[in-house]
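Thread title: Can someone regenerate the structure for this chain?

I was given the following input by a collaborator and told the matching structure tokens would be attached. They weren't. Posting the sequence so someone can regenerate them.
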Amino acid sequence: KGDDKLGPPRKRRKMAEEEEVTPLVLAFQQYAKSLTALHEQRERLIKASRDLTNAGKKFVFLLHRTPNSAEGMEEARKAMVSMQQKELRRLAEALKGKPYYEFHRSFSPGFQEYIEGVAFYKFKKSFVEYTEREDEKIPDDFAPFILTYEELCDLQEQAGVQIKVDYLDYLLGLADTTGECMRLCIGLSAKVNSVDVHACQFICAFMRELYRTFVALPSPSKGELRKKVATLTNSVLKCENALCTMDLRIVEQAQIETNS
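Best answer:
Regenerated them for you:
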């Protein structure tokens, strides 16, 4: 009868376990709480990274749609500032006070997309200024058209957003910019006039310069950077093929006009 008052055996065992909480059980309970908190922090960073990725892609699409003019670039600048104040700031707040490299893989893709968008903005802004000068000479130095590491850090400081910029993230984001330059070149190659031919030649020369820079890096054959260099090579080849096709169309058009 005494046993019946305590309830069934399973319930008695549960009560005994609750009464006997050993230091080992307490330790594992603490480990469980730490792992749960770590998982929640990582999920918040992944969510912020995805939001920044979407914002970066929309910004790149906007740059492709924006006309090559000072007014168009001013509109793009406002969109870039909005991305910095919203999605980038949200990522910075989620990362604040946390070990940077412990969570680096969780937010690196979104940060690379942001760097790609800002680098493409820098290139297109400089490209618009170059075309407005109507200078037909391809420059020997493309440094003014490339977003530097220091400029990237200064842009974040101006926006009031403090996130450490990993050098590899900077290189990977810059390498992705060549894909957008290739798309810009392909779009221009659909037209047949001397202005667009010169613009395509300029973009192709710029991409060749970036290719030489990446190939000259100490170890471009390892990891993600190796894949980016391979993609960069394909982008340069596509630009060169588009430029050759464009030249052939111009020659064919001139022959047709001569014969007619």
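The mean pLDDT is 85.
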